[in-house]
Every structure is written in C-alpha cells, then in structure tokens.
Amino acid sequence: MSLLGRMFGSGTTVDKIRKAFSRNDWAEVLLLAERPDGSLSAADQALIDEMTATAGNRLAQINLEHGEACLRGDDFDRAREHFELATSHARDIDLQQAARELLGQLVQTSTDSVPPVDSCTSCSSDRQPDAVDHENLRFEDVEAPEEVWELTLAAMPPRWAESYGKLDAALQEAVMLAHAGQDAAAERLFLAAETDEHSEVSRYELASLYLRGGETERGLTLLEAVLRDVPDHDLALILAIDLVMQKITLPWLPELLRENLRQEIHPGLCHAGLAKLAALAADEDLIITHSQAALNHGFLDHDLMVWTSRVLEQRGEIDAAESLLKHLPGGGGCSGGTASPLLGEFLLRHKRKPDLALDSFKDAARQEPENPRWALRIAQTYLLKGWKKEGSSMVTQILQTPQLDPALREEAIAALEASGN
Q1: Domain that holds residue 104
Q2: CA-CA 20 to 30 A from 297: which of 119, 227, 394, 421?
Q3: How far is CA 252 from CA 224, 231, 238, 293, in A?
Q4: Closest among 169, 160, 162, 157 to 193, alpha carbons compared
Q5: Is residue 276, in this structure, part of any structural domain at all?
Q6: Which among 37, 42, 135, 29 is positioned nearest to 91, based on CA atoms?
Q7: CA distances from 74 to 24, 97, 404 (A)
Q8: Is 300 left (phi over 0), alpha (psi -120 to 50) or beta?
Q9: What is the pLDDT of residues 51-63, one digit of tens each?
Q10: Mean pLDDT of 111-136
Q11: Residue 154 is part of a domain; what is its CATH number?
C-alpha cells in the first residue's frame, strides 16, 4: 500500500477524519473529506459534513484573526490573502460575510486609522447591518473615494495595480462595489461599462462575483474564458485552484497548469496547483515533486506544506519534513512570534528541540486558552524534558476536563503511564 494509502487508508473514513478533527488539524479534515467513500452510511456522511463544516469555519476564523493582525501592521497584501482564504474556507454564512466585510474594510479604511476588528462580534448572527441602501449605493457616496481607490490598488500585486489603475471611473466604481460585497450594483456597472480594453479585469471580477453569488455555471464559463485568453492571470489561476479543492470539476485546469509551466508562466503557483491536484488523487510522488518545486520558486502555501511534510514524514525523510514545516508562519501571525504549533507537534513526535516545541505550544495556549490540546502538548513536552512532576500533574488535571475528546484522553493516559505514574 502507498504511503498516502497508509495515511488515508487505514481505518474508516469517519475514524480518520475524527482523529484529524481531535488534533484540530483542520486542513487534513478537509483533505480527507475530499476523498469519495461510497460505503458511508447516511449517518456517517452527516457526521463528516458536520466535522468538515466546523473545520472550514475554524480555518476561516484563524485566517480572519491573522488578517486582522496584518491590518494592524499595515501589511495589506497579507491581510487580503488571509481574508480571501477565510472566504473560501468558511461554511457559515455569517463568517463568509465577515470575511467579505473585512475585504471591503481593507480598501475603505485609510492607512492612518485601521481599526481593530473583533472577529467574534463581526461573525455574530445577531449583528445588525449598516443602514445603507446597497442596491443604490454609488461610488460618489463613499467618503474620500480617491483615497479608497488608492488603497484598493495598494492591496494588489504590482501587475494588477497597474492594470486596475488604468480603469475608467465606471469600472473603478464597479470594482469598489464588488470588493465591498455589493454584487448587484457592481454587476450592473460591469455589464454596462465592459470594453475590450479592460475585458480581462471585468470578466475576472464578474466571474468572481457570479461564483460568490452561487451562479456557478455562469462564473465557471467566464473564468475559463479569462484563462484561455490570459493564461498568466494569476488571480484567476488561484481562484480556479481553490474551486477544484472545493470539489468543483475543472477538467481543463491540469493541462493549462502544465502548459503554463512549459511556457514558464507563474511556475511557483502552477507547481503548487498541480501538487494540490496530486493530493486529491493521492499521488504522493507528484505531491513532493510539485510542492518542492513551488517552494524552490518562493511560493509558500500552508495546506500544501502540511500535506507534503506528512508524506515526507511517513517516508522517513524527517529532516526534509522538518525543513518544510519551518516555513509555516508561527503562532504570532503577521506580527511574528514562535514556531508553528504544527512544527512543535512534529518535533515532539520525534523528540527533537523540546524548547522550540514548548514555546510554540505556550504561544498556541495563549491564543486558545480553553483548548486542552495545548495544555496536553505542554505537559508531554515537560515529560520529554524530564520534568516528570510538573508534566504528570498537568496530565492529571487535563484528564479531569469535562467532555475531553477521546483521542486526547488516550494520549493523556498513555503519557501518564509512560511517565511511571
């Protein structure tokens, strides 16, 4: 059996997803759920749907928090990436709306006064909408529209900042409305203002708008047309890859990515896209080949690095797996901080660098003080360092946690037994 077969093939689908869920490994939950299993009962499928919805929402919440940290640090490019990831991962309508509002806020707020946003408040179901007539909202109604447009351009990659900067007033208004979530008003303006000169911009924005609004067939037709005409449209490529990871079939995408590589068009992004497609197909050799090529081109992708590190770890390539995980952002998000807790768990599993692992767990515990996973990881690291009294005491306390996840309970009991208590 292949390594991915061993990773994904032992135990039932529900068991594997439940274990990943218990580790708070949200990315793996979503990846496992992508793999079809026709033997599932209706009850099992309902349980998987519930866990994947939670995993998607947790990933979205994490990206919202990291995006807010980037906003506070005036890192608008990173903030936009996090908010777009939050939009793609979120299953909850309120979370999706929160991400879209933050994307709108990204371009509507001046760099001198980026307000902190309370994620819990922004995604609350009883949050009252602003008293704005969205159907009739006009660009002229926005305070300081020139500054807002400048910030819109500042949040874009240089190529697109230049292209969008050449738009006429009508298309500028359409883009601003679309990015603020006012899709109906934006669509009217795009359709009325579309010209051949700016076709790639308006078609991409319309494709995104239709896909957000559930007009999937219409959006996919436009998206394919954009990439057929402009194969180096990196924003459209990213959108297409994300759609495939959400179980939307794009049969033309693999060959387009391979052709782009032959033409040396966005090699990092295209290698990453092919690696993700390989992950869905459980082709471990291609995952490693393409993900390492993407990394060599400077393209970093969180989920891809996690999946690839798992394959390397299963193969016994421990140093390579650790090296890959070092590229993951730490617990401090855009503001910096310690190593990623995923790297910390890897180090703990292999009894490496306990001090680095401990710092990552303590940072994670500060961010999620109610999550017993991090307390257990701290206790396990104490035991690894030989601090048996402190570690055993913590494990004993963790075992008193009401409704402790069964997988964590098993780990806690095993740690206590291994310590001789």
Answers
A1: 1-124
A2: 227
A3: 8, 12, 14, 22
A4: 169
A5: no
A6: 29
A7: 29, 22, 39
A8: beta
A9: 888 888 888 888 7
A10: 36
A11: 1.25.40
